[in-house]
């Protein structure tokens, strides 16, 4: 339950930040390029924090690192809600990214330990709580803002909720004596199967980023959908991903981890192909629903595999895989943009489908 609450916290925090983005842009007077550079600092904070968080967890235990990460999130969000100076917003966003990266890394380390101790698949359910947290956080944040509470008070209430959830999770967070070894380096180059797992995570996170950042553009430009309805593509993706993850542990227990990656990659690739090749917006929505269902349980299985492989210690392997996955979220949408500029958006999305086929092919030889 503690591990589930940690995943829920990260989902809520992520959703709390989303509606603040246009407010930050307006207060700071940023154009699109300036906002893009500011948002990049979140990724920088996350990627720098992840390997260090894994090393710190190995020396100190999970509790201090998770406490520090959650405090960073709670301190940064109110500044992002009301700040208007570029320097303070930049520092707050780096701090927010570092907190999110640290908690994301260590909660996955704890999830690996808890799943191993349980002797049954649990990782999909953990990640399902993250997806559920994103939905709940978005609904609560939107409701508070729509009620006229203002960004500052709305964020403070959500931060208070995060603090309460963390307090409830605290008794079940693994202490130092359960967290394992010492002498783990802060940074280690992924190698062998860990590098492969990280690259597969990169592709799946890239696919998720393409659904978030490009589905609405595709539906408007390629399918002529009214902009008011363009968010339906990502909504279809999110609903099936959340449902797939919440049911994923039973699916993994029945089918096995390798088939979940193989069939998930094939299903997601088929969904993108359906969206691109059938010239109807209804088909595009159905396709994005298939992408969400296909991708739902691949990343949880990859994190389990990272914890079970023997090429590198888990406390190095899991942060490495997490970092490569985040790189897919950060760089993926831009890479798709470059490909769309050169080849067209439809062709760029088909390239993503081809990468998903490669994920399916690699799934046959995963360590389970």
UniProtKB/TrEMBL annotation:
SUPFAM superfamilies noted in UniProt: MFS general substrate transporter (SSF103473)
MF terms in GO: transmembrane transporter activity
Membrane-spanning segments: 32-53, 65-83, 89-114, 126-147, 153-174, 186-207, 227-248, 260-279, 285-304, 316-336, 342-362
Coiled coil: none
Name the UniProt record assigns to this protein: MFS superfamily transporter
Membrane topology: Multi-pass membrane protein
InterPro entries cross-referenced by the UniProt entry: MFS, MFS_dom, MFS_trans_sf, MFS_Transporter
PROSITE patterns: MFS
């Amino acid at each position: 339950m503690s591990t589930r609450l940690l995943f829920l916290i990260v989902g809520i925090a992520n959703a709390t930040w989303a509606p603040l983005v246009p407010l930050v842009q307006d207060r700071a007077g940023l154009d699109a390029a300036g906002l893009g550079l500011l948002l990049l600092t979140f990724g920088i904070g996350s990627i720098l924090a992840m390997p260090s968080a894994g090393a710190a967890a190995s020396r100190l235990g999970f509790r201090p690192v998770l406490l520090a990460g959650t405090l960073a999130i709670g301190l940064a969000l109110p500044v992002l809600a009301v700040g208007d100076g570029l320097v303070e917003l930049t520092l707050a966003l780096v701090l927010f990214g570092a907190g999110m990266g640290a908690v994301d890394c260590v909660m996955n380390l704890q999830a690996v330990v808890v799943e191993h101790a349980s002797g049954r698949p649990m990782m999909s359910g953990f990640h399902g709580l993250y997806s559920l947290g994103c939905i709940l956080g978005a609904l609560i944040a939107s409701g508070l803002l729509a009620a006229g509470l203002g960004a500052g008070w709305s964020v403070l209430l959500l931060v208070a909720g995060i603090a309460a959830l963390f307090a409830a999770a605290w008794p079940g967070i693994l202490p130092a004596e359960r967290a394992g070894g010492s002498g783990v380096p802060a940074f280690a180059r992924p190698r062998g199967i860990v590098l492969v797992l990280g690259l597969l995570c990169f592709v799946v996170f890239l696919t998720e980023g393409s659904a978030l950042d490009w589905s609405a553009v595709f539906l408007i430009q390629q399918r002529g959908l009214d902009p008011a309805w363009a968010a339906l593509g990502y909504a279809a993706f999110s609903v099936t991903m959340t449902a797939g993850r919440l049911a994923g542990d039973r699916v993994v227990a029945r089918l096995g981890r390798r088939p979940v990656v193989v069939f998930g990659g094939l299903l997601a690739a088929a969904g993108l192909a359906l969206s691109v090749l059938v010239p109807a917006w209804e088909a595009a929505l159905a396709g994005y629903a298939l992408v969400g269902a296909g991708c739902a349980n691949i990343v949880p299985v990859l994190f389990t595999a990272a914890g079970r492989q023997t090429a590198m210690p888990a406390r190095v392997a899991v942060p490495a895989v997490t970092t490569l996955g985040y790189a897919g979220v950060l760089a993926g949408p831009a890479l798709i943009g470059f490909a769309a500029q050169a080849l067209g958006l439809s062709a760029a999305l088909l390239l993503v489908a081809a990468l998903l086929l490669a994920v399916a092919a690699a799934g046959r030889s995963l360590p389970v």
